[in-house]
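<purpose> Linking amino acid order to shape
<body> The protein record starts here
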Amino acid sequence: MTVTPDNRGEPSYREKVREVAARLAGWTGPIVLIAHEDPDGDALGSAVGLSRALRALGARTIVPVEAPAYLRFVVADDDLAPPQAELPDGALLVVLDVGEEGRATGAPTTGAAFTINVDHHGTNDRFGDLALVEPGAAATAMLVADLIDALPVAWTPELAEPCLVGLLTDTGILRFGNTDRAALTRAGSLIEVGIDYAALIDRLQRRPPAYFRLLGAVMSTVRFPLEGRVALAHRTLAMKSDVGDAGDGDDFVGLIRYAEGTRVAILLKEAEDGVKVSVRARPPVSAQRICLELGGGGHVAAAGAKVHGRDLAAAETTVLDAVARELARHEDAPA
């Protein structure tokens, strides 16, 4: 079955899709596919979906991406590889869902015979020899699906599922503001390939029991600073240690963003080398602008950063200062 293209973008985008697809289909050496650190569903799904399509064409692919526990059901035993200290000779490197080259992990971004950059972040500077970057796309998996359309390969459920997982996770199961007509059309066409949508949605939302214990600990830290315009929570290393294998709690910020009257939601996650910052914002406030100031990046509605060498208290002050400056830009906007 052929998945219908979503008709997004200018002709130049379609031309670039065909150019990237031709380069991938014609490559005779190994193809290494990597994504960003702490990969989410879009990063994992994009890498796995494209790798499977290329393998169906006879390519040798290497995917040094680590699957989060709640997404391990997406991968087969032979889909992923351990981190690569160096690239094999003659390798084509595909960097997926990486807005800033420094956030790529799994293999070096130097030393490739050719590098292709496939991404949907507005902060992407088009690094690599060939860049397919579409900031208007809801997920990088949308671009990967367009590439698979352009490859001489037939769609199967094994190709469609990781792409659909990428699209669903980056749109909050089609609930976030980036869920446009193109995203809905693409989701529908992927489901038509032969995906049990209800079963997939159920599976995507399952979490281990420890996740809910961690959730309780994190929710007990929620505060509403800056006159209630911000919902803020902490996740400490001690919390993670106390509850066991619960994942990183990355989606907790998506819960506190629904607190009435807030414009920004922040989750501060203590790490060994600093504090990871997850930010969600409502228009016209920009999470991207906040995180760029902190040395990170992302999208206008959802972004992240890392504050190095700071404890939680110091990191909170730094982050709230950046948030206050962004809120001040929109003082007259309705809540």
User: Anything to note?
Assistant: The domain at 210-328 is CATH 3.10.310.30 (Diaminopimelate Epimerase; Chain A, domain 1). Residues 1-7 have pLDDT under 50 and may be disordered. The chain has two domains: 11-204, 210-328.
